[in-house]
Amino acid sequence: MMLANPRSAWTVGADFSLTQLPVDTLWAEGSGRELAIGAAHALQATCAGISAKEIIRAAVETAIARDIRCGGTAWIAELPAGADATA
């Protein structure tokens, strides 16, 4: 699981430990982690006009399509700029 607010993002471990994620770094969690990160890196390197939102959606969909332990559909929420981080 991952948590985020407009200022930072964290990964939540199986023991509920929190690890703050590096800024401007692709990150994923779960069984399809490597597939999602690989797809995102490939898209960044080869598709100059693609938006960050499109990269994230494609990366999650790649993991779902190619990892038998991933299922469902991509659920992606965007934090609005200037959102109150205390809410």
Ordered list of secondary-structure elements with their pairings:
Layout: E1 2-5, E2 8-12, E3 18-20, H1 33-46, H2 52-66
Antiparallel strand pairs: 1-2, 2-3
Helix pairs in contact: 1-2
Describe the structure.
The protein has 87 residues and is an alpha+beta fold. It has one domain. It is built from 2 helices and 3 strands, in the order E-E-E-H-H. It has helices spanning 33-46, 52-66, and strands spanning 2-5, 8-12, 18-20. A 3-stranded antiparallel sheet has the order 1-2-3, with no helix packed on it. A hairpin with a 5-residue loop joins strand 2 and strand 3 (18-20). Helix 1 crosses helix 2. The longest helix has 15 residues, at 52-66.
Q: Mind telling me the C-alpha Rg?
A: 14 Å
Beta strand count: 3
Biggest beta sheet summary: 3 strands, antiparallel
Give the helix tally.
Answer: 2
How many domains? The number is 1
Elements, N to C (H/E): EEEHH
User: How much helicity do the residues have?
Assistant: 25-40%
Key traits:
87 residues, alpha+beta, 3-stranded antiparallel beta sheet, 2 helices, 3 strands, 33% helix, globular
Summary, kept brief:
The chain is α+β, with helices and mostly antiparallel strands and 87 residues long. It is 33% helix and 14% strand.
